Amino acid sequence: MNSAKTNCCCQRQLHLRTPVYCVDLNDESLRKKLKRGTGGSEEAELPPLSSEQESARDVKYSWKRLRAEGLNCDYTRIFSKSEADDIFLQLEKVLEYFSGEQTKVQVCGKWYDIPRRQVTYGDLGLTYTYSGVTLVPKPWLPVLEKIRDRVTQATGHTFNFVLINRYKDGSDHIGEHRDDEKELEPLSPIASVSFGACRDFVFRHCDTRGRSATRHLEPVKLLLVHGSLLMLNYPTNVYWYHSLPVRKKVLAPRVNLTFRNVLPPPKN
Ligand SMILES: O=C(O)CCC(=O)C(=O)O
Ligand SMILES: [Mn+2]
After folding, report:
1. What is the pTM of this model?
2. What would be an example GO MF term here (predicted)?
3. Which residue has the higher pLDDT, 250 or 13?
């Protein structure tokens, strides 16, 4: 039996985002792929940064390294308090969140409202599909370019797309999921920038979830503060699910931007 396919999305709660399957490391063909660096393993070689990326990377930030088996993340503050306050106000003013069909997700054939607001911006011609909804990005806005360019300055990585989530208070949340949509460039990091209320963020290893858990590994938890950047580097999204849990005591809004690299649609 392929243990990778035992985790039916119907067993998951509504707030989970995408059908989820764990990587089966007993699968010989997958092991071979991992050795070639095309799949998800902490042993797989990361492509080196190009010389432009290396020289673009700004060393002035003090990074906290988060490491666990298959988890590779880096966290820092990239905006001062006054910059972050100013950007947050601008985001609240200019962002136009999706409405209607684009505010719903499909879970096991049923449609539900997502427990937060959402919108995407990015390069012309890209699309991004998750949980049965295809999102077409709106054109970049100056404030989004400013945030994106600061991330590039800090990390050396460029991005062509951003998914934005607004949590009006601690009752809005995002359930456990991996960002593993097929449109995402497989080895590219995801850069998560947060403004507004501080919220807990939790990683959970795929082998430790639910009734079919095969082992025990502690979840990795962190607090995402106003003006911070969390880099989710490969292979984090292969092995670790992440969530922003409900926190009823949080009364203030938060806006999170996840900068991504979306592959261009295939030419027919
Ligand atoms: O709000 C956050 O910090 C996480 C958002 C997220 O995981 C996503 O948009 O995929
Ligand atoms: Mn995510």
Report:
1. 0.81
2. ferrous iron binding
3. 250
